[in-house]
Amino acid sequence: MMKKNYLIFALGFLMACTSGKETATTADATMAPHLESVREQFAPDKRVALFKVEQRGNVLAGQTNMPEAKQDLLKKLKEANISYVDSIEVLPEAELEGKNYGVIAISVANLRSEPKHPAELATQATMGTPVHVLKQERGWYLVQTPDKYLAWVDERGVSLMDKAAFDAWQKSPKLLYTKPYGFAYEAAEANAGTVSDLVYGDVLALQQKQGDFYAVTFPDGRKGFVPAAESVKYEEWLASRKPNGDNLVSTSKQLLGLPYLWGGTSFKGVDCSGFTKTVYFMNGLVLPRDASQQVHIGELVDTSNGWNNLQPGDLLFFGVPAKEGKSERVVHVGMWIGGNQEFIHSAGRVRISSMNPNAENFDEPELKRFLRAKRITPADAVVDLRRTALYQ
Question: Which of 20, 134, 191, 320 could connect to 142 by a Cys-Cys bridge, CB 3.0–4.6 Å?
């Protein structure tokens, strides 16, 4: 009798466990399509949009930097009559206490894929670049750059500000450094000690001219002096930006010989898309970060019958075409400069190659993996600095 009762109890227990698993699986399957739908709509590219939300039983947990994505998800679940517990955090996190504005405070900040120095270098940001600060973790900040890229920066590389402090910084007159590499000094003399190194594109707050130097303030409050011959008032630099073919080619050749650096977007090193991004930035336009993002902007240039339709400044994309159910992979980008069917790109170092088989610098491997060319206009840029007060 005891064995029989035990058997009934055991069977009942197993049925209860099985029933519970089936219920959970059904719930998962019911909620999963809505999660995926919102993710595809609002965050198809996780490099520029954060939607890390998952279901844990009937609890929705995770984070997003898009309140509209959360609202859309909750609306979908409500319409589907699915019960849930909302535990989704919308960034910026409350722990920042309103200091969710940031300005890059060193000459070149290395932004990484994870909050640690050994992590992959995702991109770089130059001094004065405003960023949106989303969260803090172990001395690192998750930030979003003007090109919408999401990455982590060491706390010493960014100056955090609340809205009032950020607005005050933005309103200050600015100075832009124009040499590939140099220094800010402790005093208005070339043999003074240095405060910081500088690269092209660094932006500082301008105080006044003092002899052959400009007195400046850094985003973190440090003071220094920058040689006047190596810098220009930001509004003057902006007014002189004309992103035409001649200027793009001339600018690109100022980067010749720079070493290839995965994740690099500055004069300290560039990867392929970091190179094209830097060239266009120097002419007033901010492009998307990666080659696989840059390929989606601009107007397609017909190269089916050769290179005659290309103009200096057009971007060339290289990779693996789609085939046998596999998506296309864009892995490299360069810029057309004309001449003997030449383009300039960062591959090992910034160098000039040719599509002409008879040229000494013919690049057969790149020719073989050429995909297509795009022409970029100011309207295609993520930010046209001439029309957007990014630093002001």
Answer: 134
Give the position of tokens 């022409």: 375
Helix 2-42 to helix 67-79 angle (10° resolution) is: 130
- CATH number belonging to domain 172-239: 2.30.30.40
Over its length of 392 residues, how does the chain's per-residue pLDDT go in tens digits?
Answer: 443 443 333 334 333 333 333 333 444 558 899 999 999 999 999 999 999 999 999 999 999 999 999 999 999 999 999 999 999 999 999 999 999 999 999 999 999 999 999 999 999 999 999 999 999 999 999 999 999 999 999 999 999 999 999 999 999 999 999 999 999 999 999 899 999 999 999 999 999 999 999 999 999 999 999 999 999 999 999 999 999 999 999 999 999 999 999 999 999 999 999 999 999 999 999 999 999 999 999 999 999 999 999 999 999 999 999 998 899 999 999 999 999 999 999 999 999 999 999 999 999 999 999 999 999 999 999 999 999 999 99
d(CA 285, CA 160): 25
CATH 3.90.1720.10 correct for 245-384? yes
Whether 95-169 and 245-384 share one fold: the answer is: no
In the β-sheet with 299-301, what is the strand arrangement from edge to edge? 299-301, 370-375, 315-320, 329-338, 342-347, 349-354
Q: Tell me the residue length of the chain.
A: 392
pTM score, two decimals?
0.90
Cβ neighbors of 257 (< 8 A, separation 6 or more) are 349, 350, 351
CATH superfamily of 95-169: SH3 Domains (2.30.30.40)
* Token pair for 338: 């004309």
Listed by start position, the domains of the chain span 2-90, 95-169, 172-239, 245-384
